[in-house]
Design brief:
It contains 19 helices and five strands. It is mainly α and about 475 residues long. It folds into two domains: about 250 residues, no CATH class; about 120 residues, no CATH class. Strands 2-1-3-5-4 form a five-stranded mixed sheet, with helices on one face.
Length: about 475
């Protein structure tokens, strides 16, 4: 019930934002004929993770529709995340109301932004982060209980699904286990794991094209964060420090120890962020985004905060629960409606879209050849509720300035960034494009279709149109 309530509050948008990187990778595995052009902008990610292979294998084995399987995995990821939070709440609190409050608060705040990291605690769509989060929580719990084989298994799973986020979970699990052993007076293992992030391998040179891409990602660089995003770093650390000091032993022992370990964990990655994102020679290392470690810290903070609210405030007074959670959930729902104003709150599998962009993309998927190559406004994702063309239309397109730039930043070695910059530069004056400009792109890149906003452009044949868009063929 709580899982479905979370979906109702936070919504579901299967092709939004980073899904434009991961969904095409799954579809390419299922049908290698798709995306004959420009696939390097998402396949580089696919080579680092088994996420796409896992989802593709599930679709093949189940023989269920693609959209239904992706939705099922999304719901399962939320369920397992909440189950991991329940395990932790049981570790930290005795009272049932405390445990339940901890998990309900997590469910209510899944789409809470994590400081300036450009992350939520959980996305409104399925990505490797969706699976890595519950793996990190289960792994840390296994480390806490001294079940190191289970900790190793969850760590391996997280590494296979999302190597970067796995580093955060592994380092925290080892830190937590070491601190617990120390508190119990048992022999501790050396915390060599905390140096794992510093072993970053070779430092690629920063080319001009890569610099242009990485400058589109201000959240990589901590000094470019807004003042309120800095509050998102230190306010949680101060709260955890306050919970951890607990000299009068008012809190359960697990709450104090977990809080202290999270302070150390948070400060460690903050120092790593200062080291990797400020010095100019380390510009290509900013892609490691050490402040994304805050996702795990935020999850634990909400578990602890919810448990303490249940213990000291909510207790067994039903009215207090309603007064807290009803406005909170309504507020979270309202924020999601502002983020996706042109789309249904939940984009159910198999239901025809009402968003004009998605309607056009679906027409393209059903009425153009699989090797069709499109040009589209490089900033289109700012206009269509952040839905991805490749993810929905299943067709190739020229590089965009919104999502492909992010993909490029993770791979500084040439020539990916150079290809991205050249294609985006050639589309720079898109709103003023005439037929001759589209044919120029055709001569240079081989495109044979165009998606553009109305009104029509003289000299183009457009077999599909709706209230907002035209899909035009270049002869």
């Amino acid at each position: 019930m709580l899982t479905f309530a979370a979906v109702l509050v936070h919504g579901y948008h299967p092709a939004a934002e980073d899904a434009e990187i991961y969904i095409p990778g799954i579809k390419k595995l299922l049908n290698p004929a798709l995306y004959p052009f420009g696939s390097e902008f998402f396949l580089n990610h696919a080579r680092l993770t088994q996420f796409e292979r896992l989802i593709a294998a599930t679709i093949r084995i189940s023989d269920l529709p693609f959209d239904l399987v992706v939705f099922a995995w999304y719901v399962l990821s939320i369920f397992l995340t909440l189950l991991a939070c329940w395990d932790w709440s049981a570790e930290c609190f005795v009272e049932k109301e405390s445990r339940f409050a901890a998990v309900v608060l997590v469910a209510a705040l899944l789409t809470l932004p994590v400081a300036g990291t450009s992350l939520y605690i959980a996305d409104q769509y399925l990505t490797p982060r969706s699976l890595a989060l519950f793996a990190m929580l289960f792994g840390a719990h296994a480390a806490w209980r001294g079940r190191y084989l289970r900790f190793g298994a969850w760590s391996v799973f997280a590494v296979l699904i999302h190597p970067l986020m796995a580093v955060f979970g592994i380092t925290y699990g080892l830190l937590l286990a070491g601190m617990k052993q120390s508190a119990e007076g048992t022999k501790t293992q050396p915390m060599w794991c905390l140096a794992a992030f510093a072993d970053v391998g070779l430092l690629p040179a920063c080319t001009d094209a890569y610099r242009a891409a990485v400058q589109t990602r201000s959240y990589f660089f901590i000094l470019q964060w807004q003042w309120y995003e800095w509050i998102g770093i230190f306010a949680p650390l101060l709260l955890l420090w306050w919970l951890g000091r607990d000299k009068r032993k008012k809190q359960p022992p697990a709450v104090a120890l977990v809080s202290r370990s999270l302070v150390i964990y948070g400060l460690f990655y903050f120092m790593i962020a200062l080291l990797l994102t400020i010095p100019a020679p380390f510009e290509t290392l900013a892609r490691l985004q050490p402040m994304r470690s805050l996702q795990l810290l935020y999850a634990f903070l909400i578990i602890l905060g919810g448990g303490l609210l249940g213990k000291y405030v909510l207790k067994r007074h039903a009215l207090r629960w309603v007064i807290l959670f009803l406005p909170l959930c309504a507020g979270m729902w309202f924020v999601q409606r502002q983020l996706f104003p042109m789309s249904p709150h939940i984009e159910w599998p198999g239901v025809a879209p009402s968003n004009n962009w998605l309607r056009a993309f679906e027409w393209i998927r059903g009425n153009t050849p699989s090797d069709a190559f499109f040009a589209i406004d490089p900033n289109y994702m700012l206009s269509d509720d952040q839905h991805g063309f490749r993810a929905v239309a299943e067709r190739s397109r020229l590089a965009d300035a919104v999502k492909d730039s992010g993909a490029v930043t993770m791979f500084p070695q040439p020539p990916l960034a150079e290809h991205w910059l050249e294609e985006v530069t050639d589309q720079r004056r898109w709103p003023a494009f005439k037929a001759a400009d589209f044919y120029r792109l055709q001569r240079k890149y081989g495109i044979n279709w165009v998606v553009r906003l109305r009104p029509a452009v003289a000299g183009l044949s457009c077999p599909y149109e709706n209230e907002e868009l035209l899909v035009c063929r270049l002869d």
